[in-house]
Amino acid sequence: MTAIRGHVIELKPNNKQATYFAKACGVARLAYNWALAEWQRQYEADKNYRDDCLAKDIPIDETKLNKPSQGKLRKQLNSIKRQQFPFMLEVTKCSPQLAIIQLGDAFKRFFKGESKYPQFRKKGVNDRFSLSNDQFKLKTINNKPHIQIPNLGLVRMCENLRHQGKMLSAKVFKQGEKWFVSIAVELSEVVKPKPKTGKHVGLDLGITDLATLSDGTKIKAPKPLKHKLKKLQRLSRQLSRKQKGSSNRTKAKTKLSRLHYQIGCMRKDFLHKLTTHLIKAYDTIAIEDLNVKGMVKNRKLSRSINDLGFYELKRQLIYKANQFGKTIKSVDRFYPSSKTCSCCGHKVESLPLSMRKWTCQSCNTVHDRDINASINILNNATKVLTIT
Ligand SMILES: [Zn+2]
pTM surpassing 0.90? Predict the structure, then answer.
């Protein structure tokens, strides 16, 4: 079976190349926002026309409807860009085109109910542009890896591409004042499954401890990461007090985005080590089917959840299990894993979050809240999770 992997590599552009990157990001954002506004306008016009027909009791003429789509909007932009946006021609044509394809994908996810309505892109927030696989090449010059982009030339990469296989696309993006490329590769080699251990584990994801295993192990986020998160809170507070448009605010923003980047790296690194360990040590890993979207609505919890990267943990577990022949299962979202006694099955009516230990009234077992939950998760997980 084939698998797709991404590899993020830091780039070392010279000034001219960095300017090109910034321009291509600007064009991608403009094309995306133009297409979103146009989509909304055409949708509104269709709706008005339909309502009008209904009111006048005349049949709807399908040919008079716009029915916006990413394909039509790309054609429409191509026909006007020479006149209206001539600077778009200064960067790769992929930049506006792929941005509109991404808008189409965002609408698809929205219609399926997987994400919210597409939002306009903002300058300085996730600046990025994408390249199709015919618009870039990897080259080694003087033993140093480079990416070649038409009309731009060779840009130095800090490391070689890790994966072997067909390159599908590349995304160039900025994070913490640095430029990166993320290259998606369809793996050519088949990965060998990890040997079976005959062991199974339940995982309770928490706020106090990152994860509690059904064997009683508690996994905490590493100290340096916690330290950086504290620093992040402090810097965010400082930023909110700086005057808008001041140079102090710009400086604080740069500091903050650098810190975001460092935290992202540390968290990913930590989660990779943890998930690789779990996949090696166990054949089946049972987790909660966390409704992260629902939980993030609760603002008090949302910070820690985002910080600990639950979603990322689940994602890594699933793809590694898939790669190494292991299984990830989940329990039903509504299964009361904390409130059920793992010894006798008795269910308590309520268990406040602050209660870390409790005694079962039916069988007198004293439970550690999280260990009890992780045992229940192990014993009741039925749904096998696969890559979607
Ligand atoms: Zn009990």
Answer: no
